[in-house]
From TrEMBL:
This is Cyclic pyranopterin monophosphate synthase. Coiled coil: none annotated. It holds the Pfam family MoaC. Belongs to the MoaC family. Pathway: Cofactor biosynthesis; molybdopterin biosynthesis. It comes from the Bacteria. InterPro entries: MoaC (IPR023045), MoaC_bact/euk (IPR047594), MoaC_sf (IPR036522), MoCo_biosynth_MoaA/MoaC (IPR050105), Mopterin_CF_biosynth-C_dom (IPR002820). GO terms for biological process: Mo-molybdopterin cofactor biosynthetic process. The gene is moaC. GO terms for molecular function: cyclic pyranopterin monophosphate synthase activity. It catalyses: (8S)-3',8-cyclo-7,8-dihydroguanosine 5'-triphosphate = cyclic pyranopterin phosphate + diphosphate.
Amino acid sequence: MADELSHLDERGAARMVDVSGKPETAREAAAEALVLMQPATLRLILEGAVPKGDVIATARIAGIMAAKRTPDLIPLCHPLPISGVSVDIEPADDRTLRIRAVVRTTGRTGVEMEALTAAAVAALTIYDMCKAAEKGIRIEGVRLLEKRGGKSGHWLADSAPQSPSR
């Protein structure tokens, strides 16, 4: 099993993967998260009427900061020189905000974890800023959408959009 899981050594103990022998290549990953809420809560966000402030701008900044701090949160992630992070947050329907995070680097390992962390923390920030208005907000569908670069090349999740469960 240790052969299949690169974060385990020959004895099955956790280790940080040695990427020093891998070439540096341009790498990019995109991830998404969905935040489901009542239509009235989404209206408050879109109208800028949430008492804690601009929810979307704050969540965007939180996602960017989270991408940069991923190795502080995920124990075996490599610290990477991130060259770019974007976090887009838009309504998917009258109950859902869709977060899309894209992270770029030139390095020896990918930025999938940074993109996933950015999307998840942006979603958590939306919850935090809106919990006084609605406790039942749900975060769902945190997933990798696409990755480029490295030995495995380009990977794309199924093209069908993930629909929020209700």
